[in-house]
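Issue: copy button drops trailing tokens. Both records pasted manually instead:
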Amino acid sequence: MNRFHRKLITPIVLIVLGVFILFIDSIAAKILSGLFLGVGLGGFLGMGAFKKIKRNFTAPSSGAKKYENLLPQNAEADVVQEASAVQAEALGAAHRKKQWRKTEDGVDKILDMFITSVESRFSNFNTIAIFFPAKDESYMLRKFRSKSEFVNKNALLKPRHGILGSLITEGLRPFYEPNFTNQNATLYYYDDGRRFKPEELIHSIMLSPVKTDNVTRGILLVDSTQANAFSAEDQEFLTNAANLIGITVYETYLNTGRSLDYHRLVAMNNIEKEFWTNLEFDAVMDKMRDIIPYAIPCDRLTISLKNENEKNSAAVVRAYGQNSEELLNLNFPLGENAEKSIVNMAYSKNLSFYRNFSADQYEIRYCEEEPRCNEFASFLAVPFGVDMCKGMMFIESAKSDVFTDSNIDLLSHIGTSAGLALEKIFILHQANALATHDGLTGLFNHRHFQIILEKKLSACTRYNDPLSLVLCDIDFFKKLNDTYGHPFGDVVLKGVAAKLESSIRMDIDAAARYGGEEFVLILDKMNAETAHDTVDRIREAIEAMVFKTADGRTEVNVTMSFGIATFPKHGKKPPELINNADKALYDAKKAGRNRVVVY
């Protein structure tokens, strides 16, 4: 018998059994017959047994129209629609439990149909029972039908307990006892506290192991109060029925598992798409905060990120759940010099781990100053980033021993996707910064200053608002470079730039490096008089700055000169306004430097 013929055995058995059951006068039997016939015929078609017939059947006759089978396209469309509907909920334990509950309901219906089929064969039965594996090699009663009211619904067949326990211990096999003489209580699926009447005692019993791939998946059992109630042919029928139960039920469970895995993969794919659809920091962080509690039930979630400018510190950027708002925006130190905290350890070792909190004392999550809450029993910490740890997902639960390795795998997958998106955002921000900002001082560069000025002048023209343009440069900067060196000159440039930027209104005014030691300020909606007072305060603040040389022995002060031109009084177009501000700056230098001059 070749491999192809061996594969045909199961479909043949299903078809034969389907035809056999078809003649049983029962609605349930008709349903079960249709199931077996459909699966059996599907098996034939799946293996190509009817390919030739199919070709002959679908070949168009002369002059006839050729019709296309639309079922594959319809099925593909259904899958695409299903995939698009799968959201983050598919990652969560609640979704899995719901799907398994549906599967168990379906298995119950399948078992009921099988029991109906067996009942139709054995009218003299007392109890038909199906047992599924439980812990410690035992078997629990899953489904039954009985003429007796004394079946123990919570029955458990244990190894070495009674005649059935002996069979479990020795290895389950088809068993047939036509003259059973023990008491019902020794079967352990009847009430062991009842005294059975003589007519209630079991005198015949027959069982077959439920198998799939030669692995025992359960027990199918029939008993009767009549002696010699079953024959060898009955035993063969029961064995075939048990095998079909094994195939049908186990494949149902396998399909549910595959479906859950499929939904999980699709959900992850959809989440990744959302990360990349809107490449913005807040969008990625919000999505992480929203989906993680679906994926892993928890009572509190906090997400932290390393500070870009201070690598030895981090901050909580998103929070969810109980007492979470108290931790939002919390800054905490990292590294060897920081206090010992759970998150600091996870950061330093780039480590994913979970455990219960100490029952004896409070364990610091982030830092000593954090708001404390003693209502959590366990935690899970998972870092994320590309190549190195840039952030941390920290989950807490009020229950003990709730987190698993699979939770780490799931969060790591989410973290990797989010980390890649954040890395892309960082690269885009860097590229944008290079295009719009000066590399040394971090202020807007000359090119971007021109763009900002055009936009602001257009708005001022529309709303009839004033605008002041300020050109300024560091006094005697060439002498400073010659005396202390260019590295020190760079220190001064960066210090002055930082003071200029911090002295104007954020998101209203603008500061840019115009070239060399020269800078420019755009003071929006500010007339000449107000601009003069504002710039003079800036001049005084810069004059008060102290710069130390590299050896720390010399302290150096610098001053700046400022020229102001105001729209529309001193010019309505950018070139005119810049030219007049430059003339005012020249006058300031000519008058002795370290002063503010309005054109």
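Record 2 (pasted manually too):
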Amino acid sequence: MELKKLSIIIISLVLAILLFLVGFLFIFNSSHKKDSFTYYKQGIEYFEKNDFQNAYYNFTKIYPNSPLFLNALYKQAKSAENAGDYKTAIKKYSIMNKLIKNKNISPYILWRLAVINHENKNERNAKKYFLNLRDEYKTTEYGIASNYYLSKLTKNKEEKKEYLLDYIKYSPKGRFIKEALAEILGDSEIKLNDYEKLIVADALNQNENYKLSINLLKNVPINLSWVSLINSLDKLNSGKNVLKVANKGFSFENSNFDEETLLKTIKIYLKYIPSPLNGLNEIYKTTNDERIKGLSLYLSANYVSEEEAIRRKFQFYEKYPSSKFASTVLYELFMESFKNNKKILALKYGKKHMALYKNKNESPAVYYYVATLKKKNLDNSYKETINKLIAEYPRSYYAYKAYSTLIDKNFSNKRNLKISKNVFIPYPYKEDKKERQFFEHFAKTGDFKSFEDFRIQDPLILSWVEYKKGNRALSSVLARDYINGLETSPKQGNIAYKLAYPIYYNEEINKETKKKNLNPYLILALIKEESHFDPNIRSNVGATGLMQIMPTTAEMISGKTYTIEQLQDEELNIALGTSYFKYLMNEFLENEPLCVLSYNSGPNAVKRWLDEHKQNSMDILAESIPYFETKNYIKKVYTAYWNYLLTYEKVKI
């Protein structure tokens, strides 16, 4: 019995000790977590003062159980390196290299390991790290730059040439380009073939060494070198020689060049001839290259009457359907027919475009206008076309048009909505936990200078960083460009949409739009496109602030005179901007699209366009606006408006 009691006492003591230890560790970890941020920020302060010894000391006070440990380890390496303690720096970078491996962090860590070893004459290790960079991260900035160092570490001339050419080709304006070009051209033992000379000549062109580029290409066959020669001669304003070389170049079959390069070259040629149309007609007659023949026909449509332009575009499409520009020409023919109310012909062109081309810039517009024509013809298959449009291009301007005009005609009148508060936007990629925490803690501590070391190329990560830094305009533009650069739209809920279409000033917008019975999300979209939420922005003509208010407009609306500084006040600017939009709503009988157009170009211009298109629909008016900026403006505003609703109001499509 006594043994049993003794066992119970021992077990109780062990449990008590364990509970004490758990509590102690919990308190210690909680306390250390708070201390970690203090030590890290102190370390940054010392680091920025170039006191690397004290910086290193503070970063070493952050232990492995801290969420900041990886960041602190990196800063230890940087502090040691800057203090000249290369042995410690290599040790810390090596630990980091083992703890985390990915395309966004590893290249810079390997780069520092390689460069420090190289500078300290440890060429064997340096070469190992540079080769690792080149093999595993060859498309990154550091992977490309490793080629330059490898060229210095090898005695094999063929290897040296390969490394230098890779650097010159993929980084023609890079940090070491001057040295790389000097080495490859100055080493008499390095022999370049014709294609390698073209790579070097292109880099010389980009670095404004036009005469040297021309000299390098002297012995390269003209059928390979003529495009590069024309680029150099154009920069030297040597028009006579441009024409001479171009006339030779047009006579070849130029399979070495893509269509965009040939188009650019023809446009240079046109700068130096008195009659572009005659020049293009001559090229069409004499060239032996079918693509150049097609491009000359394509460009000639810009120099003839409207009727002749349509004839030439049709001829181009019929003869050169495989051209990169065929989809654009077919779209132009489609829109010309649509605007001129040639419904049968427009449908023919539209259906052909839908059948032949996918994921083109024009595709959403073709789907929308084909659906519109089908509905007018009482063809129920218009629903199928709309479904395809919304499925394939759900966040486009034309998906919005289809939804709001062909599905729910009351959809646009969303004046009773209230913009929600902006939400916290986390790091955009969850898959790699270490990477996410590493970059999140740079942001949390305000250590953005360290983030810049890694030279991230992913525009979505860059957008997030700018968002964390408070650079609203750049953040939203980067995210928008990321989305537009994808072949298919990201899925609903993707963080990219919140970065591209953030919410700011919700209280001010809700207050003013409720008072004036305006659509709050439309005003939000307007602000985004006008200023990207930068309250201090000012245009060349004097438009100021979030809603880009002109001082004269502010005075006309309010009867008061305001200084530039006053117009930069966010609350006042939104109040004046919404008052002006309300004025436009009264002018155009509550027609929101016309008010959006007027906000950009002025009401008088819109009234003039309305007079010119009295018999036409709003669609035709919007597509017929003679100014690209205004035509594009209404599409950008409503694309933003549509995406705001899809992102924050959970609109089901």
